[in-house]
Amino acid sequence: MNVDIRQAIHPEMAKTFDTERLRREFLIESLFAPDKLNITYTHLDRLVVGGAVPASAPLELLPIKATGTENFLDRREMTVVNVGGKGQVSAGGQSYALGHRDMLYLAKGTQDVRFESKNAAEPAKFYLLSAPAHHAYESRLVRISDAKRLDLGAQATSNERSIFQFVHPDVMPSCQLVVGMTVIAPGSVWNTMPCHRHDRRSEAYLYFGLDADQRIFHFMGEPDETRHLVVANEQAILSPGWSIHCGAGTSDYTFIWAMAGDNVDYRDVDMVAMEDMR
């Protein structure tokens, strides 16, 4: 396991960053690598963002110093989303088969977590999201067909998209995590526009489903002082509560959003009027 630590950044400090520093603080460039489990521990609401690609052998979720616990999930909950080939997760004495875009929620206290691919030639790519937890809810596999679907936007405004809510109060209980997937319709490019922010929660975005020569232009920063990051396929963004988070792609794409903080109310956002953007 490789572990990277990211500190919380004040918005006044972020205004002074050049492109290289912005990318170092807020972009996770190397998330998925064969036979590696890469972990980014961030002090933004103590979110953990990770990627596991078990190619030649299974991978085990080991404890890390940053959590200060004997087992990784002793005081945490986790979601695992498969964005690759067919795979299997063993956790707490149970085995779960995950197809492409299926999600597994693992409860606080779950031990012996292992990741495996069904076919080494087409390995699973497990995207991991974890936050501190105060209660042990039931572990649950939520297939994309079981998620709550919302169709939003319009082709005329280039933001036609389908939202799939996985870890969400309308689907299942959780302590902090709220996780879903947004699929941008062909011909549309914008996500989360009009944009918003939510000072009560931090968020992480994973962009995927892009060809190698396509990019996402992700916008961040305070509404009156925005910045952008150029994001490639299967890279992730860390979004502080003070920052807007929206983006436009050079083609259609999919992204996974995950939030943690003071509540699990998906609608608790602070909308930003277009005329207030700078």
Describe the structure.
By secondary structure, the chain is mainly beta. The protein has a single domain, classed as Sandwich (Jelly Rolls). It contains two helices and 24 strands. The protein has helices at 11-14, 19-26, and strands at residues 2-6, 27-28, 37-42, 48-52, 59-60, 76-82, 87-91, 94-98, 103-106, 114-117, 126-132, 140-142, 148-152, 161-167, 178-184, 190-191, 196-197, 201-208, 216-222, 225-231, 235-239, 246-249, 254-261, 270-271. The chain has a seven-stranded mixed beta sheet, with no helix packed on it. The longest helix has 8 residues, at 19-26. The N and C termini lie far apart (40 Å). The model has no long low-confidence stretch (mean pLDDT 96).
